[in-house]
Amino acid sequence: MPITVTAPEGVLTATGEREILPRLSAALIEASGAKGNSFFTSIVGGTVHILPPGHIYAGGANRPVVMVELKLPNIGLGSIEARNDFIAAAAKIVAELSVPGHKPENTWINILNAPDGGWGIGDRQYTGDALVAAATAAAH
């Protein structure tokens, strides 16, 4: 379940650049109710993209927006409450790992869902049922 963080250079602290992905991964696992599940944990990952400040825009103008994009199978964060839990946790993480003065309205969090069967690892396609079965088997 890829998490992509895109931030302008100088907005995340040096520690923030290193810690944001592990902390967002932990927040996703927690919000999913999958803490301690080896299968679920193994399929959460992502990238951090630090761009020159002049390469980030919002509202048609250059702006220091930190974007957190989460891509999930259609079963991921299956309730409004679970999505809210992740969004709240992600916003808090960005705030804690940003330089002083980073405004909350400059943190954007987006959750995208793949259709059933539109999720894969290697050459294996996973349906929602297959993912649930794999995660359930790992919990035992």
Walk me through this protein's architecture.
The protein is an alpha/beta fold. The protein has one domain (2-139): Macrophage Migration Inhibitory Factor, CATH 3.30.429.10. 38% of the residues lie in helices and 29% in strands. The chain has four helices and eight strands, in the order βααββββαβββα. The chain has a four-stranded mixed beta sheet, with helices on one face. α3 links the parallel β5 and β6. α1 (14-31) runs antiparallel to α3. The longest helix has 18 residues, at 14-31. The protein is elongated.
Task: Please name the defining characteristics of this protein.
140 residues, alpha/beta, Macrophage Migration Inhibitory Factor, four-stranded mixed sheet, two-stranded antiparallel ribbon, 29% strand, elongated
Concise summary:
Helix content is 38%, strand content 29%. By secondary structure, the chain is of the alpha/beta class.
Mind sketching the topology for me?
Elements lengths: L1 E7 L5 H18 L6 H5 L2 E7 L5 E2 L2 E2 L3 E8 L6 H18 L9 E8 L4 E3 L2 E3 L1 H12 L1
Parallel strand pairs: 1-2, 5-6
Antiparallel strand pairs: 1-5, 3-4, 7-8
Rg is 16 Å
Report the CATH topology name: Macrophage Migration Inhibitory Factor
Question: Biggest sheet: strands, sense, closure?
Answer: 4 strands, mixed
Order of helices and strands: EHHEEEEHEEEH
End-to-end Cα distance, whole Å, is 22 Å
CATH superfamily: Macrophage Migration Inhibitory Factor
* Overall spatial form: elongated
The largest beta-sheet arranges its strands as: 2-1-5-6
Secondary structure tally, helices: 4
Under CATH at level 1, the class stands as Alpha Beta
